[in-house]
From TrEMBL:
Its cofactor is thiamine diphosphate. InterPro entries: DH_E1, THDP-binding, Transketo_C/PFOR_II, Transketolase-like_Pyr-bd, Transketolase_C. E1 component of the 2-oxoglutarate dehydrogenase (OGDH) complex which catalyzes the decarboxylation of 2-oxoglutarate, the first step in the conversion of 2-oxoglutarate to succinyl-CoA and CO(2). Its EC number is 1.2.4.4. Residues 466-640 form the Transketolase-like pyrimidine-binding domain. Keywords: Oxidoreductase, Thiamine pyrophosphate. The lineage of its organism: Bacteria, Pseudomonadati, Bacteroidota, Flavobacteriia, Flavobacteriales. This is 3-methyl-2-oxobutanoate dehydrogenase (2-methylpropanoyl-transferring). It comes from the Bacteria.
Amino acid sequence: MKTATTSEVVSFEDFKKEVINDYKIARISRECSLLGRKEVLTGKAKFGIFGDGKEVPQLALAKAFQNGDFRSGYYRDQTFMMAIGAMNIEQFFAGLYGHTDINFDPMSAGRQMGGHFATHSLDENGNWKNLTQQKNSSSDISPTAGQMPRLLGLAQASKIYRNVSGINQTNFSENGNEVAWGTIGNASTSEGLFFETINAAGVLQVPMVMSVWDDEYGISVHARHQTTKENISEILKGFQRDEENNGYEILRVKGWDYPALVETYQKASQIAREEHVPVLVHVSELTQPQGHSTSGSHERYKNAERLAWEAEFDCVAKMKTWLIDNNIATSEELDEIDSQAKKDVLEGKKAAWTNFTAPIKTEQQELVGLLNTIASQSENKVFIEKIANDVASIKEPIRKDILVAARKVLRMIIKENSRATLATWIENYTEKIQPKFSSHLFSQSDKTVLKTKEVAPTYDATAEDVDARLVLRDNFDAIFSKYPETLIFGEDSGNIGDVNQGLEGMQEKYGELRVADVGIREATILGQGIGMAMRGLRPIAEIQYLDYLLYAIQIMSDDLATLQYRTAGRQKAPLIIRTRGHRLEGVWHSGSPMGMIINAIRGIHVLVPRNMTKAAGFYNTLLETDEPALVVECLNGYRLKEKMPTNLGEFKTPIGVVETIKTGTDITLVSYGSTLRLVEQAANELESVGISAEIIDIQSLLPFDINHDIVKSVAKTNRLLVIDEDVPGGASAYILQEIVENQNAYKHLDSAPQTLASKAHRPAYGTDGDYFSKPSTEDIFEKVYAIMNEANPTKYPSLY
């Protein structure tokens, strides 16, 4: 007899032991779901979404899952995580309670609700662990089907490692033998991200196994409202591969049939792992015993017949019957396992709650003692003692209770000597606790962008002026030669060398896997990059135009931007996103929705170089860091002339550092990207009327002016104008807040700080459309002149 996880012949006793252990895991997982729901309903946990009804297929999946493999799943995979040894009972409940210590909740350190799973790809210092020696799970996100794009990249990484020579695979791959395993609920297959990913994986032929857990419902909505023919594998059967065409292997299996599930997943693993062919496993006839979540009962939308069927075909109950019918275990033995599972889960739950509350109770006692001391010396003794007693009486305090009480008392003693003591306590407590909720939005390792230093481009005496796109092209050439793990892909990026020829000849030189064309599918272009970056590669995902980034903004916002944060620094994806934007022609090729972008993707650096040398320097910088970034090249700058540097691939543009490109004394003009050329022209024209403008290139919107150099300029000129191509109130409002509020530039202003933005609509077509939609040289000149007129109307009489 062969086990599920190896080809070795084993005894019946060993087989029996393995299968019974599977049943134990299933029972423990089910009890966690049942008790977890009670914890939510009693108020100890905020929200519950559990994996009951999906236990047995997840056991089968776990048997086929090997070291080095990756999961990209959804929030019902708790049994799988237990089966691969990545989560225990106490950790399950720690996640449910939101324990902020990653040693207790290794999934997210309390930053995600329960049911969102992850393993650690990084150590506490942000260094890669050996991913080939552990079973890996990428960090889950809640948006339905949001796990799909990243899954594509996780699978593609195996293809790259198997087929591209020269890459150091240490820690990341064993010759591309790893499989990426996806899971999704049947209703979420209605999402566009599911179909986009399925199609892309079929085209790319990557080792991906996609499991659909089909329980016929999406929350309360039946499959007949979700899926054509109510059957996802039926409508996808055109993807089935045959002798003449690549495609998928499509497998179907009942979710309560343990031996068939084990066999199916072994087959899926072999096909994907050995042949690098994607596999779809449609697991049907599953149940959801507690309904969708603790927000409501499924009895409201399932009729008596369906509920009776679910009771009969519950996968754990069916597995128990199978064990008895096949003389693997007796009913009494399994009843004992059931009873022990209840005890173990109850004890684990109690331990998790104790561990969660213990440090908070210590903090509670500390504050109560301090408040009583303060009360004894205060005119408001009675009121402070009442607050202290109220805090002390809270049996299950949270940190909000503690800090609210302290801050209320502070108001009562604002004129008393003890104010300083309490204020210091509050400040120290906040400094200690706030990082538990806010750390790791960006990298905290020694490879953070903030530790990189500028390396200026160098030029020899014969440096010629060339089309700026050639600086990019030759710099990419240097990058691909220097970093074998670097690859770039996007629409028109390969064969023609991108639409602006910044990659001219690169595919021919480095091959179709490293410089690749892809289909028109922006979300999964991002997904390819995220997944490959999570596996140690250094991808550059190219989105053809900035406007098209909107297709991918959800993936950038919900997945990439939050990755380090939601894992408390235990996963990373240092993806570079390359695009081009600002001024060209018309509504869809010259938008600059920067305000939307910078507010949606906090956690990703947003870099806005004014020319291609600066852009090339950003790419060189980023490849020495471990953080994701968006680089927006100037769409109208590729044919402008720039000198060719001699240190290609080596010069680095600093991130978060502004550059003063013209000094002046009367007003500070702040802008970035394509608009800077207009600002420079306007500044030259302003000189003719006696106005001296200082021009600062922001270069980086996120992070913004980390050295606070702009306020130094404002302190000299005492006036400020921000010029931006976004709509009014967009990026210009963000920039103004950074300068006036965060840098305290208001102290130095003699005139009101102002902004000059585009019109509220998207830019119209043509040169006139650009002129009447976005700031022009004349607009900038007249805006500055009006500011100077208001300051000195005698010297600068009104133009209008």
